Amino acid sequence: MPQRNFYIDRLRSAMTMLVIFHHTAITYGAMGGWFYHERKASGAPSSLLLTLFCATNQAYFMGFFFLLAGVFTPGSLERKGYRRFITDRFLRLGLPLLAFILILGPVTAAMVTAARGDGFWPTIVFLWQHKSIINGPLWFAQALLIFSLAYCGWRAAFELPLAGTQRTPKPVPAYRWWLISALGTAAAALAIRQFVPVGENIFGLQLGYFAGYIFLFAAGIAAWRHDWLRQLTWKQARPWIIFLILVWPCLPIALAVASAHSSNSGKSFSGSLSSTAILYSLWEPFVAWGIIAIWLLVFRDRMNEPSPFWNWLNRRAYAVYIIHPPILVGIALLLRGWAAPALLKFGVTGSLACAACWLASDPFVRLPGVRSIV
Predict the structure, then answer these.
(1) 3-class secondary-structure state, position 202
(2) Could you give the CA distance from residue 30 to residue 51 in angstroms, rounded to a whole number?
């Protein structure tokens, strides 16, 4: 890009904070997989609110990460060439993934078992001996590495040149293409979930969500090529903001109805061709497109000026993403004796975890060798 788009870096920092709060919500009663559950998901109002918070996040925030990654992928490949780009991807994505599998994942799991009285080191030894692979949130690095290699393969297969490639600005796609993409993503997600339901991992990846991830990564590449992020307007996003307002309440209503008729209502959303599974597949992109557009427009229009504080946050955001599980779990375990409402503990623990993660990440971005990775 001719100049740094500060707002994109800030969006990545904001999404990283949201990831921490997302996992904090699961700690205190939301549905979802995480290392430590202080309170199980239930029909309690706090649990339902935290579950809706996580469901809304899940609809868009990791897909948003892939879109932002896609924006920077073609330019990086064209500047570096295949060999240097792929080497960089393995260093920046593969090494943190390996570090999490070998060290951070087992340590985080062992912290939980130790708090329950089952021992810290026995858990570490057990996981290593059984070659258990815990990729945690670094599944994103794993998936992005796969997507990056696939993009390189696509460019090479079609013999698309790297040197001298030009960006060709084109108008932002018309509304009908947004609609087609939403319906297509929903149909693809529903088809995948017939074989891999939501919540089921294949090689540490929840493939049930990958229809949206793949589309948004490709959309980010196209957005860079055709300068769509700069051209996007509130008028173009308005229909999707209206859809967001109209469609979002459908999920809590459906969840309430399903809960009233079944004690295991969560599974009805995860796969099959049930009405709730179809609704959930449609709900995600129709909510996601609107929320993503709002984030992009607000940050682009109001948060695109240099800021030392934001620069400090942005430079450490990737390290924060990598190290946040043991820090968040550690803070939650320290506060487990505090008898407070779940929503209050969610706010306090999430805020403390964000502050602690950014402070703890500071040394990593200063260490020679490590700073080139994180």
Answers:
(1) strand
(2) 4
